[in-house]
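Entry 12.
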Amino acid sequence: MQKGHPRHKQLKRAKHDMALYRRRKSKEMVEALRLTFKIIGEVVGGATRAIAKYFRNT
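Predicted 3D structure (tokens):
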């Protein structure tokens, strides 16, 4: 005899696949944010160095 509904296995697999997908997407988002903040930090650092250089020379 069949145990349970035949779709349970399919639904369980779909939930597992979605969990893996969400995990992968969150890792990608973390990497994108890390890169974005790194670029912003470099830009701000360059701007502050330029401002400091300007005020040292005046």
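Annotation: Residues 18 and 24 are 10 Å apart (CA to CA). DSSP finds one helix and no strands in the chain.
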